[in-house]
Structures are given as C-alpha cells and as structure tokens.
Amino acid sequence: KLLLAQTDFEAGNGGLALHYLDECQEKLRGWEHRYLRTRINARQTLMGHTNEVACVAFSPDGTRIASGSGDGTAKLWDAATGAELLSLKKQAQPVASVAFSPDGKRLVTGTGNWNGAEKVPGEAKVWDTAAGEELLSLKGPHDSIRSLAFSPDGQRIATGSDDRTVKLWNAATGQEALTLPKHTEMVWSVAFSPDGLHLATGIAGAHATVKIWSAAPSAPTAAPE
Question: Which of 19-23, 90-94, 129-133, 218-222 is the least confident region?
Fold first, then answer.
C-alpha cells in the first residue's frame, strides 16, 4: 500500500495516495508512512527545479510564487494550482535571492555561490513577470548576492553581498544610487521600512548584528542610526 501511495503521490493524485495510506495496517506504519502523509498534506508541491531551492517569495497579491535554485533558474508558479508559469533564462550562477516589486510586475533575482566555498561574481537582474523578459541588469562589482529587496514605492532596489557591501539601485535605470559603508561581515539580509526611509541590514559571522540605516532617496549618504 505504501508503494502504491508513493506512486500516486508522484503522479499528482494526492487523494488516492491518502486512501492507500489509510489502508495500511496501523501496526506497520513507520516513519515512511508519517513522512509521506506529511508531504501529501502539503497544500502544493511545486516540482521542476533540478537543484537546491535557495529562496522563495509570494507576489504581493498572493497569486504567484517565485523560487530561485542552484540550477541557475528562477521560476514563477501559480499559487493556487502549483502550475509552473515561467522559467526565467538560466543564469551562470545559482539564484540565491528573489523579490517581487510592490505591484508584482517585476521580479529581481540575485546570483552567486551561496555555500561560501569560493568567491564568484554576483549579479542582480530585473525581470518582467508577465513575459519573463530581462528588463535590467544591476551592473557593479560585487560578490555573491545573498539578499535583495524592492523599496515600498518600487523605485529602488537594495542588494546585500558577500563582499560586505549594501547598494541601493535605481529600479528604473539600473544605475547605482548609493553604497553604504562597508560592513564587517557578509550581508545576508536587507529589508526596507514600510515608508522606505530606512533600511535594515543583517550580517553573518562572529559579529552578527542588525543595523538600521537612513535610506531616504534624497540623502547623499546613509549613516547607521
């Protein structure tokens, strides 16, 4: 029964798979039974990447999910059905971070080697989420991009990198607008405040800290607060 349940689950027939699991004798139910039931009970299982999935994000309206993988692709999925909607052009490095614009019409992806084994050039790209076309490349010297975020008004993008830098970019032109003073460790997370006037950054390593920066669009520099 367990083998039948596994076969039907992989074929996308979760209802029949649960039926076979329920028919298994209780005294014979081990960890395999529990593991498969947990997987089946997941609302959706999105299958299509061929390597580790490093990052995921819901679109602002909740209808789509973006995922980035070690296979160099970012994919868009229908959140209700689990169907793959788009697979963006494969990149040379793993996709380590993804973020939707506030209106859901754009997706920014960041690439790099997330296991830290070696330094590789990172790259951030902005994509059209309807057609899957590349709109912008945020060009600048940086290592693997661990984290990124759109500002609430959709006009800026923040990127955090293994080279210990955080940069703010013009989301319309792709031009670098601001570089924060260098951090003491790799920057693993960035997030804008709801009003877009501040940016929080988180770093890894022995000196793990969170810093809050002034990030007003008119500010010539940004200083920690």
Answer: 218-222
Residue 45 vs residues 16, 49, 109: alpha-carbon distances, Å = 16, 12, 22
φ, ψ (nearest 5 deg) of residue 28: -100, 0
The size of the chain, in residues, is: 225
Q: Which two tokens stand for residue 158?
A: 């923040």
Q: Which long-range contacts (CB under 8 A, 24 or more apart) does 73-76 make?
A: 73/49, 74/98, 74/107, 74/109, 74/127, 75/46, 75/48, 75/49, 76/107, 76/129, 76/132
Under a CB-based contact definition with an 8 Å cutoff, are residues 215 and 168 in contact? yes
Q: Is the pLDDT of residue 93 over 70?
A: yes
User: What are the φ and ψ backbone dihedral angles of 218, each rounded to 5 degrees?
Assistant: -85, -10
Residue 223 above 70 pLDDT? Answer: no
Reported as a single tens digit per residue, the pLDDT across 181-220 is: 888 898 999 999 999 999 999 998 777 899 999 988 765 4
Q: How far apart are CA 207 and CA 205, in angstroms?
A: 5
Measured CA to CA, the distance from residue 70 to residue 54 in angstroms comes to 7
- Is pTM beyond 0.85 here? no
Q: What is the C-alpha to C-alpha distance for residues 203 and 183, in angstroms, rounded to an integer? A: 8
Rg of the chain taking only CA atoms, in angstroms? 21
